[in-house]
Write a structure and sequence with these properties.
It is a single chain. This protein is α/β, with parallel strands linked by helices and 281 residues long. The protein folds into two domains: 194 residues, HAD superfamily/HAD-like (Rossmann fold, 3-Layer(aba) Sandwich), CATH 3.40.50; 79 residues, Trehalose-6-phosphate phosphatase related protein, domain 2 (Alpha-Beta Plaits, 2-Layer Sandwich). Helices cover 37% and strands 20% of the residues. The strands form two sheets. A nine-stranded mixed sheet has the order 1-13-12-11-2-3-4-5-6, sandwiched between helices. Helix 3 links the parallel strand 3 and strand 4. Helix 2 packs parallel to helix 9, helix 5 packs antiparallel against helix 6 and helix 7 packs across helix 8. The chain is globular.
Length: 281
Amino acid sequence: MKYAFDHIHTINELLRAHKKIILLTDFDGTLTPIREHPDLAVLSEEARNVLLKFSRNRTFFLGIITGRSLRQIKKLVNIPGVLYAANHGIELEGPGIRFSSSEAKKARCNLWHMYMRLFKSLRHIEGVYLEDKGYTISLHYRLVKKASDVEFITKTLDSIIKPYLERKMLFLTTGKMVYEIRPPVKWNKATTIQWLLTNYFPLEFSGEALLVYLGDDQADIEVFTALDGKRLTIYVGTPSDTSAADYYVNSPDEVKTFLELLYTQKDEGSNELLTEGKRAI
């Protein structure tokens, strides 16, 4: 991967070639730093103001693509009129759309049984946090200090979920210090975006619109791979050979700078180039 701010001229040329931009971004680790506990994540006013500008400009279509629940992400971002794709796409809400997967609803009973079994088995572990997000469950272990406890968590999860995986009643994925337990549905960030491109975005954002996607986790890497060579993709964090993103930035702070520059470049009536903002880093 190439550092985005070292290749601004190339990015400028790509942006100039498209009149419309679909901007889709992850939340945790992208718009805001990863926190020790999910409840501590807060979108800064500076970042929210940048997103507000995108939401009010007809050149852009803004969407937040996240593993959080719809209720959580709407409260955290608090910007009306944008697309929210929550629980990795299982829940969608935005202009002209409100959707939740009927297949995911059928798995709710299995998810609840999984949640209760994990809760009873792991409640004595200091630092573990089990999050019920309605259509998915997140098992966070970032605050678990003992290596032996982390090992116990992994073995316990493997034991409890194994029969569900064998019967394809649930799926298990991993993230940054978190296990994600999901219903057995096709919806993930990559498939959701593919569906949105085909079925949802307004006519003026089809065809020649450029999709810009930013993310930092394994679920986002799946998006980069699916969109490889077709869009502008930005990985957030230390460069990784496992990511198919076009470019990288180092942190959510640099994401904010990049978004500010992106807006300046495409804002109707503005002739300023991204190079003029590099000094802000």
